[in-house]
Every structure is written in structure tokens, then in C-alpha cells.
Amino acid sequence: MGSQVGTSPQSSTNHIVKTPADLYAAVERDGIEFIFAMFVDLHGKPCAKLVPVSAIDNLLENGAGFAGFAAGAIGQVPSSPDLIAMPDLSSYTPAPWQPGLAILQCDPYCEGEPWPYAPRVILRNQVERLSAQNLVLNVGAEVEYFLVKRNSSGAIEVADSLDTSVAPCYDARALTRMYHHLTSVSGYLNALGWSNYANDHEDANGQFEQNFRYADALRTADRIITFRYMVHSVAARAGMLATFMPKPFSHLTGNGLHMHLSLWSAQGDELFMDPNDPRSLGVSKLGYSFIAGMLDHAQGLTAITCPTVNSYKRLASAPTASGSAWSPFLANYGGNDRTNMLRIPEPGRVENRLVDGAANPYLAIAAQIAAGMDGIERSLDPGSPRSSAAPEPNAYQTPPKESAPLPGTLWHALDYLAQDSALRSGLGKTPDGDFIDYFISVKQAELRQYHAAVSPWEIENYLSAI
Questions:
Q1: Which CA distances in Å does 181 have to 200, 232, 324?
Q2: Which candidate in 85, 99, 163, 260 could, as Cys together with 106 as Cys, close a disulfide (CB 3.0–4.6 Å)?
């Protein structure tokens, strides 16, 4: 439940790496012995090769080769040519939790061309679209996760056996019991120059959030991937399992990946800001058009931001034991009110609460750019913000009639996505057609697997009832 803070983005390290000479100096300075050449597949799975620094010249010249089909869902078959992961030097990130290791995020290529199925390539294309218009999208992310463990029967349970309060959010005692984990991660974030500014116990038992400063869209997506890997590693060393799964427990609040968006000029002007906004939210006409685009494409956008079967057990779920699910169920917007899909917490930025912990950050941000920019290009207006004033302060209890409901299942969201021409165009084309069609086909296969599996709930309710 954190927020984006600050007035200008920061770099990921104190020494920006732009050239091979910069990289050689950084590797020497940081005592690096190995480099992860890393990229992600459609699901956001980090894939890497461990490259010794003695082979750094070869990595920079030739990249790291991968059998793409083996890596995951990235548009290849067993007979496809190698994917070549070409490192982005500016993404250089030493791993303070693993001394001697650094990470270089990579853009996959195939036969000399950027691979259009690669999520990072898709986002880069959208960032370059903005850059051609002298625009920069800055993004802050609230990355929520659970710390769990497996019990003797193999089921998961909250790692802290004392974390049982009905209302555990911000509980200082639960924070103290996870002090070592949280402060370790905080220290690593600050060592990287990411400016960790808050660490809190979230609304569910065993759930935490650790906030870091916002940055440009591509850098923030890289950081989310690195942060997930970092938290997994630190938790595993303590005998715990970190999960960003949207809804690991049916009775507890789920994991969001709320994203705070603000559009800037390349010269540093805040383009969503207007202190004279007649709607009193401090948002410019351009900002409202971006918001309108996000709302207009919310149904299709949901398939990208909530991309799993489990996502829809978080989205619009019933109130949890704490009293609220904290997830949206309508395509609406308003002021500093967490029951809206789009929240304006302060002038000049908008928080999208639709995004969940399973989202691939590259695809989620690319899709939001496509939706928002369509709103700007068509000069859309979102209408009046939903009022949070009494007697109707809660969108969960008194949903505005004019707001469209969000899809209730992944099947429905994929149907909306298939029909969304702006998102289709924004996520680009592949050698076999639109990326959107590939995404849908992968997710439909996932859905078929899910529906083929008989769940314990079905056995309990149907075995003797029929």
C-alpha cells in the first residue's frame, strides 16, 4: 500500500554504465567474477547464462546463445535458430546479496534482428515510440509478496507461525519477527542506489511490501525482475519461500503490483500535472486523456495485467478476514481512494491498482502505454472522477452505475484482448502475426490445463452429491 515518492527519477547505481570501458571499470570496482546474461519469457520467468568475466568480451560482441524453445514461452519451436541475448550495458546491476555476481538484462535477437516475442523488446519499442514524441513514461511499482513455508503435508502456510492477527497490516511485532529478512533486502536496495523508502507488513498474514524509487519505464521493469529474483534468493537462504502469486491463500488478501505512472517531457517537465485542474485532482488535460485510454481499454488490459487463472481469485474477490480485498472490480477512477481501479494519490500521477503479482512487468507497462497513448491520440475524456464523499464513500459497497465491470475470468479477459485494436497494435507484430494472438494462444493452453485438472473442491462438493 505504498506510494511513489520524489520529484525526479534516479539512476540504478552511482556509476552509470554506458560503454564497454564503463563496464570493465564497474566489474573491477565491484569485484565481479560472474555475470548473469538475463532475459524473461512471456510469463516473466528470468532466464540466464552465467558468464565468467574472463569471457566478457565475447558476451559484448556475440551475446549469449539460448535454445529459445527450452527457455519458455518466447515464440520458438525446437527447430528454431538460437536466440542471442544482447546485453544492455545500462542495466548493469551488481548483486549485493550474491557477492561476485552482476546482472545484465538483455534484449533477445534472432538471426540479427530483435526478437518481437521478447517482452523486453516489446516494451523497448513502446518506449522508443514515446521518445520519438519527446516523451518519457516514469513508473513506480509496489511489489507485494508472501513469505511462506511448506508444512509436513506439502501444503503452504505463512512462514511466521505467530503471524495470525485478523488485521495484521502495519503490525510492528510482525515486522520485527521478519526484521532480518526485510532489513537485508532494504540494505541491498540502497546499495544499488534504488532508494528504498519504506518496508511494511501488508494486509494479509505473511505479506510484505518493500518500496523503491521510481524510474523510467524500462529501468523499472528491469528492477522488478531483479527485485523478485533477489527476494526469492534471500528468502530461500532463510528456509522460506517468497511468492508473488496473486492469491496464494483463499481467505487472505492477494498480491498486487500496483504501478504509478507519470508522463514527462524529455526535458523533465511533468505533463500530467496541472495545479489549476477544475476537477481538483491536479491532473492535466493530457493526463485525463491518458486515464481515459486506460479505462477505455481496461477489459483487454486486464488479460495482460492479470495474466493467470489465479489472478481472478484476487480480482474482485470477496472481502477477506481483514475486511477488504483491496482489489478493483470496476473500470473507474477517482482521487485518493483505494477502492478505485485508477487512483490519483497526488497531483501529476495515476496509480493503476489492476496490475497483480503475476504480471510480466515489460508487457504490463507496454500495454498501459498503448492504452494511455490511444486515449491521448483520440483526445478522450474519462468523465467526472468517482466521488469518495459521503454517503457513498466506498466503490465496493456502492459501485457507480456508469463504470464497466472488469472481466471475471481469464477466458473473458482474453476475449476482450483479442478484440482490442490499440493493444494489438501496441504490442506489435511477430513473424507469425500479432503478438497478442501468440499471447492468447499460450494463455488458452494454460487455461485448458487448468480446466482438465480435478480440484479438491470438486471432489468435496460433487463426489457424493450426485
A1: 12, 11, 27
A2: 85
